[in-house]
């Protein structure tokens, strides 16, 4: 029963994302709205992590299987995609390396900034203590 409740919470938030997509009419997928709403609910405590943990782990475990329909759809539309395969591959490779580079540099910058902002603990110089 616990798993059914967790899946229903996730599905309810996904449905709310669909409602937002319909109501806002922005070029943002409903799944992004749903993830944003779930994130906000988790951060504010409206939804506790324990309320969705096991169902979320299960969905992550089966994620590769969820890509099968998309792959079949790509194979089904091969005639349409064939003329643009090479440009798409080049764009994909460039994009992957660009994202890796930007993410790595940004992570390094954030780590360095965090290290410089840490308060340094003051240590007493040697021989400055009370000596008898």
Sheet-strand content, in percent, reads: under 5%
Name the structural class: mainly alpha
Helix content: over 70%
How far apart lie the N and C ends?
A: 70 Å
Oligomer: single chain
* Count of beta strands: 0
Which term fits the overall shape? extended
**Would you list the SSEs in sequence order as H and E?**
HHHHHHH
Q: In DSSP terms, counting alpha (H) and pi (I) runs of 4 or more, how many helices?
A: 7
Summarize the main sheet: none
Q: What is the structure about, briefly put?
A:
The protein is mostly helical.
Explained architecture:
- It is a single chain.
- The chain has 132 residues and is mostly helical.
- The protein is 73% helix and 0% strand.
- The chain has 7 helices and no strands.
- Helix 1 packs across helix 2 and helix 1 packs across helix 3.
- The longest helix is centred in the last third of the chain and has 33 residues, at 85-117.
- The radius of gyration is 25 Å and the shape is extended.
- The mean pLDDT is 89.
SSE layout and pairing:
Layout: H1 2-24, H2 30-44, H3 53-61, H4 63-66, H5 68-76, H6 78-81, H7 85-117
Helix pairs in contact: 1-2, 1-3
């Amino acid at each position: 029963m616990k798993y059914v409740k967790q899946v229903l919470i996730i599905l309810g938030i996904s449905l709310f994302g669909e409602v937002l997509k319909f109501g806002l009419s922005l070029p943002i997928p409903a799944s992004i709205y749903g993830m944003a709403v779930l994130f906000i609910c988790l951060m504010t405590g409206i939804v506790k992590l324990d309320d969705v943990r096991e169902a979320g782990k299960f969905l992550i475990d089966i994620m590769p299987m969820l890509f099968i329909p998309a792959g079949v759809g790509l194979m089904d539309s091969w005639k349409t995609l064939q003329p643009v395969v090479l440009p798409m591959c080049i764009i994909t490779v460039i994009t992957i390396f660009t994202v890796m580079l930007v993410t790595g540099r940004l992570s390094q910058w954030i780590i360095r900034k965090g290290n410089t902002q840490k308060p340094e603990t003051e240590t007493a110089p040697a021989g400055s203590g009370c000596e008898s």
